[in-house]
Structures are given as C-alpha cells and as structure tokens.
Amino acid sequence: MTQDEMKRKAAEAAMEYVVHDEIVGVGTGYTVNHFIDCLAEIKGKIKGAVSSSEASTKLMQAHGIQV
C-alpha cells in the first residue's frame, strides 16, 4: 500500500467520528485533504465546518461544504 493510500484509509477511518447534524473541525495537510474528500460525500448530513487554514477552506468550499 502506498503512502497516499494509507492516508486515504486514515481519512476514511476518521469519518467514523464525524457526528451528523454538527459542525466539523478540519485541520490542514495531505491526510486532511483526503478527509475533506470523504466529508464531501456526506456534506448534507453535517451543519458545516470550521477550518484551520485557507487551503482547507478553499478545498471545502470547492466541494460545496459550508465553512
């Protein structure tokens, strides 16, 4: 398994801790980018997100996640 695949698996595992109908705190980094991609798949089930960086904010907004 490549490092990128491991990061994706870590992001997918973190999704188990996302509480629906709440606001999600999102960090920064390559693994978080995968997390944001996963989060986009359930964006209708969360209230929105807060972001630790402009890069994460831009990626979430590109996915239609309210920041």
Description:
The protein is an alpha+beta fold and 67 residues long. It is 48% helix and 12% strand. The protein has three helices and two strands, in the order αβαβα. The protein has a two-stranded parallel sheet. Strand 1, helix 2 and strand 2 (48-51) form a beta-alpha-beta unit. Helix 1 (3-14) packs across helix 2 (30-40). The radius of gyration is 11 Å and the shape is globular. It starts with a helix and ends in a 5-residue tail after the last helix. The mean pLDDT is 97.
Summary of the model, kept short:
This protein has 3 helices and 2 strands.
Portion in strands: 5-15%
Q: Helix and strand string, N-terminal first?
A: HEHEH
Question: What is the spatial order of strands in the main beta sheet?
Answer: 1-2
Whole-Å distance between the termini? 33 Å
Shape call: globular
Q: Unreliable segments (pLDDT under 50, ≥5 consecutive)?
A: none
How much helical structure, as a percent, in the residues?
40-55%
Biggest beta sheet summary? 2 strands, parallel
Topology:
Blueprint: H1 3-14, E1 23-26, H2 30-40, E2 48-51, H3 54-62
Parallel strand pairs: 1-2
Helix pairs in contact: 1-2
